[in-house]
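W.,

You were right to be curious about this one. When I first looked at the sequence I had no strong expectations either way, so I just let the prediction run and decided to look at it fresh. Below is the sequence, 242 residues in total, followed by the output.
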Amino acid sequence: MGKHSGAGMMVGVLSMAVIGSAAPRHASAQSITVGTATGNNCVPFDCPAASFDGIFGYQQVFASSIFSGPVQINQLGFFSAPIEAFGDPAYDTGTYTFSFGYTGADVGALSPNLPSNFSSSPSFFSVLSLSGLQPDKLTVSGTPFVYDPSLGNLLLDIGITNRTGDGAPAFESTRSSSCSRAFNVSTGGEPANSADLACLVTEIDYSDVTGVSVVPEPATLSLLATGLVGIAGAGLKRRKKA
């Protein structure tokens, strides 16, 4: 009985050690606002001008230097500009799919060919169906995304479908060394694909993350080996006794 319970305790300790080394450890939530408002913009939430009507894809790159280490991104926020900016603070009805990923492109150097900007597979964050009057702040919560700045700049991708109407929501925008944009337009006088130095002022809510790697640490591997030897020994003794 004692030998069997000892092996069971070893398995329990083993499981706890592996889980502990693999699971991220989170600090308290923090927030950073990228950019200071110097103007307003309706992209990607549509504009009154026909030249910008029909936007169906948008990307925004954030410089990796914004973060000092790995973080878990939990929420985004975009700030509404004064109503008089465009005169119609209503969304077009549409579905907006938000994803995160990495890019090797620098701020100010996104390609108008949006898929080519990803250096990793996009990771789904959230999907929103927007309609009606825009709030003072558009908040987007989603599936947490763990971002490691050592792997490249942060890329936000917004895919837009089912858009109808002709609203003109205005959001605070900036021209900053920390972010820039690219977008696709299906109709109107603008080029079908565009990239420039503007971007939306963006609030990023995140938690610091340590221990992101899921590879067991050396001490855990040693404990794993000891546990396996103990379990094998207990099994051998039971077979001999039988």
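Here's what jumped out at me. Residues 17 and 219 are 9 Å apart (CA to CA). And, maybe more interesting for your project: The first strand starts at residue 25 and ends at 34.

Coffee later to discuss?

I.
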